[in-house]
Amino acid sequence: MAEHIRVLLTEEQVDRRIAEVAQEINKDYEGEPIHLICILKGGAMFMCELAKRLTGDVSFDFMDVSSYGSGTESTGVVKIIKDLDEDIAGRNLIIVEDIIDTGRTLKNLKLLLEQRHPASIRLCTMLDKPSRRVEKEVHVDYKCFEIPDEFVVGYGLDYDQKYRSLPYIGVVEFE
Ligand code: IMP
Ligand code: MG
After folding, report:
1. Strands, sheet with 58-68, edge to edge from the N-terminal-most edge strand
2. Which end of the chain, N or C, is less surrounded by CB atoms within 10 Å?
3. Element (H, E) at 104
4. Minimal CA–CA distance to 127: which of 59, 53, 29, 39?
5. What is the tens place of the pLDDT at every residue in 56-80?
6. Is this prediction's pTM over 0.85?
7. Helix or strand holding residue 15 (H, E)
């Protein structure tokens, strides 16, 4: 089946918005150290673009989790595929995600990280699909864009491991 990508957010729009969100974070943390937790693989491009614009003392680590079974809906269980390298006790974390859909991944990931006693945990996502939320109590501290319920790719996001490297966000359309 051939697919076509329709541009939803241009590279300029995404870059401009990331710069604004970075400013918000800079203001909130006022030079306090920030430890970014990048959720692989989708969060990687967003984290790099965000991190470049943070002015304080920034470190980062990577985690890969899966909350999907065989279907396309996430389940309640997070499986750690790659754990963090560093201890997070006493640190100010910002989880950096590509997109929040049902919110199940984030809810469970947050519970898991809380058990390791960080000083604080905030959540920063590039995209949010609020209409799809199942876990209503997931609090998003920083977000770049709210988008409608469409399957998107680019800027780290994939469809079947394709399109992650696109410098813009697009909707996958099937012909
Ligand atoms: P959830 O919030 O637990 O349902 O799952 C969020 C994860 O599902 C994201 O981190 C993505 O990896 C994936 N995902 C959800 N919506 C999309 C999409 O539109 N495009 C690509 N991946 C998506
Ligand atoms: Mg993800």
Report:
1. 74-82, 58-68, 34-39, 92-100, 120-128, 142-146
2. N
3. helix 104-114
4. 39
5. 999 999 999 987 655 556 666 788 9
6. yes
7. helix 11-29
- Positive/negative CA dihedral, 94, 132, 154, 74: positive
Whether residue 100 contacts residue 140, with contact meaning beta carbons closer than 8 Å, is answered with yes
Q: Which of 87, 98, 101, 141 is catalytic?
A: 101
Q: Is 100 in the pocket of ligand 1 (CB under 6 A)?
A: yes
The domains of the chain, with CATH numbers, are 12-147 (3.40.50.2020)
Judged by DSSP in three states, 35 sits in strand
pLDDT digits (tens, 9 = 90+) for 119-157: 999 999 999 999 989 888 899 999 999 999 999 999 999
pLDDT at 2: 83
State the ligand closest to the CA atom of 44.
2
Active site residue 160: no
The number of the ligand 1 atom at minimal distance from the alpha carbon of 104 is 3
Q: Are 103 and 74 in contact (CB under 8 A)?
A: no
Give dist(CA 148, CA 162) in Å, integer. 21
Q: Give residues with Cβ within 8 angstroms of 160, minimum separation 6.
A: none
Pairing of strands 34-39, 58-68: parallel
Beta strands in 25-109 (DSSP E): 34-39, 58-68, 74-82, 92-100
